[in-house]
Amino acid sequence: MKPDWILIANASQARLLKKERGEPMVVIKSYSHSPSRSKASDLGDSRAGGERADRGFGAPAYQPRMDAQRKEHERFAHELGDDLERHALQGDFRSLRVFSCSPFLGELKAALGTATGSLIAGTHDLDLTHVGLAELEGRVREEVEEPHQA
After folding, report:
1. Residue 6 burial by CB count (10 A; 0-12/13-18/19+): exposed, middle or buried?
2. Out of 13, 43, 72, 130, which residue is the most buried by the measure of CB atoms under 10 Å away?
């Protein structure tokens, strides 16, 4: 039987884990994206995009400006999404749960491909990147099994 996969991520680091029935969680891969930790001023100004003040009929429309740090977050989300999509197409996992905090969770969900999206067992707005492997399995199980009040 194929394993279940769990992605624990924030905007600058991630761990991909697998869980097989009756076995402990195992880290498959660790990711790091150091530009996401940089200050926006260190990354440079984002001149691409921008909006025109003239909103008259026929005026060209531009995408809103995006700061350099957010671009790096999206770049990392796409890196993770592309890697997961490749594995999903190869049939390497049965299901995927994603644990990440907002707004990166939204960027990550938007970066997931069709094959990966069809295998999503759940997304959780929770950053567990600081939790050690010994404690992580219990925290994931607790989050999955206990319904939370909104």
Report:
1. buried
2. 72
Three-state SS string over the chain comes to CCCEEEEEECCCEEEEEEECCCCCCEEEEEEECHHHHCCHHHHCCCCCCCCCCCCCCCCCCCCCCCCHHHHHHHHHHHHHHHHHHHHHHHCCCCEEEEEECCCHHHHHHHHCCHHHHCCEEEEEECCCCCCCHHHHHHHHHHHHHCCCCC
84 neighbors 96 (Cβ within 8 angstroms) = yes
**Quick count: other Cβ atoms within 10 Å of Cβ 16?**
21
Supply the pTM of this predicted model.
0.78
Contact 28, 18 (CB under 8 A): yes
Backbone φ/ψ region at 102: left (φ over 0), alpha (ψ -120 to 50), beta: beta
Please state, as a whole number, how many other Cβ atoms lie within 10 Å of the Cβ of residue 88.
21
Tens digit of pLDDT for each residue in 45-75? 444 444 445 555 565 655 555 578 888 999 9
pLDDT tens, residue by residue, 14-52? 999 999 999 999 999 999 977 655 454 444 444 444 444
